[in-house]
């Protein structure tokens, strides 16, 4: 993708919004190929060098985590201005794909693991979230809150009604994740009308423990911060986990109705936007 092509697509979609700041940190959308390349380099460092994902030859040679979905996505990024004003400042990212963007490729990324037909049947605007990662030195509450503020801003701007995606637990042994998977199924299963289902050939049963065997406090402690973030926003999970051998993870589908996004994130941005326009 050329600089001109990327800039034209962003301008046409109206995707860009003003950077939201918190001290030296800011969150906004990537504005062109150089910043998207920085995002892909960050993803490579986190997913492959740190978390043990298995690269193919191209991924190894480029040291970039890239796929076809990057070409149609908006890329949310957190920057640390104390590191400079170039691509070296990118320390966190989230990939955002709207329905219209997915149509250019024929399907969403999540469709490789889940039947998301009930989500796609929703007549409103929907958004797939994915490829979230943060530089190891920045994995703190402030950065995660900033990422969620950026998502809330995007949701507000584009009038998104439903968000979904795949979230990962570390490792590929579902029995080692029995507590977490069982807890999610019994306590946060999505309503049937929007519930994703793992594809039959990839379906891993989440009910690995009986309900009365679950220590909810221990389960929450063991859940990755990203999944806990979805739950705090009123999120749900789909039926069935999926093993992703390439990324060395066990995935669950997550769904968030944006009317359940907390006031802390959504109304703050709405008020800020109104004050700017007055």
Report on the structure:
- There is one protein chain.
- With 278 residues, this protein is α+β, with helices and mostly antiparallel strands.
- The protein has one domain (3-277): Gcn5-related N-acetyltransferase (GNAT) (Aminopeptidase, 3-Layer(aba) Sandwich).
- The protein contains 10 helices and 11 strands.
- Strands 1, 2, 3, 4, 6, 7, 9, 10 and 11 form a 9-stranded mixed beta sheet that branches. Strands 5-8 form a two-stranded antiparallel sheet.
- Strand 1 (20-22) and strand 2 (25-29) form a beta hairpin.
- The radius of gyration is 18 Å and the shape is globular.
- Residues 1-14 have low confidence and may be disordered.
CATH architecture: 3-Layer(aba) Sandwich
End-to-end separation? 38 Å
Please state the CA-atom Rg, rounded to the nearest Å.
18 Å
CATH superfamily, called what?
Gcn5-related N-acetyltransferase (GNAT)
* SSE arrangement, N to C: HEEHHEEHEHEHEHEHHEEEH
Number of domains: 1
